Amino acid sequence: MTPSSKPLVLLLLVTVLLGACRHTPTNVTDTGTEPDIFPDYAGVTIPVGIAPLNFAMTDDEVDVVDVVVTGKNGGSLHVQGADADFDIEEWHDVVSRNAGASLMVTVCARRNGAWTRYRPFTVYVSREPLDAWGITYRLIPPSYELYSGMGLYERELSTFDEKALLLNTQSPGMCLNCHTPNRTNPEQYVFHVRGAHGATVIHRQGADELLKARNDSLGGSMVYPYWHPGGRYLAFSTNSTAQLFHTTQKKRIEVFDSKSDVFVYDTQTHLLLSDTLTMREGWSENTPAFSPDGRWLYYTTARRRDYPAHYDEVRYSLCRVAFDATTGRLGQQVDTLVNTRLTGKSVTWPRPSYDGRYLMYTQLDYGYFSVWHPEADLWLLDLKSLKTRAMKEVNSPRSESFHNFTPGSRWFLFTSRRGDGLYTRIYLSSFDATGRATKPFLLPQRHPKTYYRDLLYSYNTPDFTAAPVPLDARSMGRHIEDEHRVETKVRE
């Protein structure tokens, strides 16, 4: 036997032994009901290329599951163990063969030495490509005041690989927030650093630029960014934020702004392009977003109240104003698209789809910081008809928020607290041919039951990315520790 042949023989031996350990269940009792699994993947629609939908039985008394996946267009998978743990390459092969078709999943579970077979459930495979390499997000622990361990991360969607882009240990005491790419482009992004070395970090054209965190002429910092599609401009809000704490279990904390305004930043001139239309006296403008063609600036606005006494009377409407990228100026007329005087509700986080058809937003009873509002739901505005509807097919009794689209606009993600009411998790969904969203599915993990049960961090401000983000943590840490900051000025 040659040295090169020994690894092959060993691999074959291991394969045979593993196959011998996986026996088809015998003396099985049929229930006629679907299995109670975590995550709930029954009836979901997935894209080709998504990581395996590994799952476990919710019943902790189950010690072994036997799972068979059969593709309508061919191909099959068979796994057995403490949970359904599919081989990544085999999973991708079967899923790709069944694009536009479906997978049938049959589960047997063993508890107390006895096997139970459940009614098969279906997973649908979309023909629509995911058109994203992965996602970016912030992971934050439960905290209200201290900037304890947190970081910006990226995750490849075809595998379970996660990478920390930047941790706040790179500069002790800093708070990292709002990593925002330009239409999923990893070569253009912005994020904030709060704390002793505060800055607004802008990465474009292969270089990093750290802006002074606060401009006294604005009365605050540059918050809640959104890129103009051309890459020259960024829309920001400037917010004076405060917190209140509830004494009931239904709601824990309230985040509100005593004042806020919306403005546009010119990355070429370092000018802040303010306008009285989006910086009105007695009103709070917030959460801006450019249209995919760059001709409109969407934002929310609410009349200011006496704070903190009337924090629960603040309700934001959704508006838009024209934007001219050649002059960097806003138009003369503001259109109100969703009016709180008619709905009695509040609008936050407007996000237009990149094909220009829809605008997704979160609606809640009052305020704008929806992650703390159990009643917060996703709504969809048709930009052709200007009709809006609740996205009942994806909403839950708990908070939904922080949504974003893929470049093709057929897939979107959002965060939800539907699992335990405490921690936000990422869910993905798509639009079918009728414009309705498919049943959302939880972001896959290798061992999801133990992963999500043990994870004491929340996913925050997620977005898609077309490729890995070129961020060198060590170099960025040095830049942040450096006191050099670019000054910004308000255009006269």
Q: What class would the helix/strand composition place it in?
A: mainly beta
How does the major sheet shape up? 7 strands, mixed
Continuous helix count: 5
Strand segment tally: 36
- Helix % is under 10%
What is the gyration radius calculated from CA atoms? 25 Å
- Tell me the distance between the termini: 82 Å
What shape does the CA trace take?
Answer: globular
Mean pLDDT: 89
Strand residue percentage: 35-45%
Task: Give a structural overview.
With 492 residues, the chain is mostly beta strands. It contains 5 helices and 36 strands. Strands 1, 3, 5, 6, 7, 8 and 9 form a 7-stranded mixed beta sheet that branches. A 5-stranded mixed beta sheet has the order 19-20-21-22-36, with no helix packed on it. Strands 12-11-10-35 form a 4-stranded antiparallel beta sheet. The protein is globular and about 80 Å long. The termini are far apart. The model is unreliable at 1-20 (pLDDT under 50).
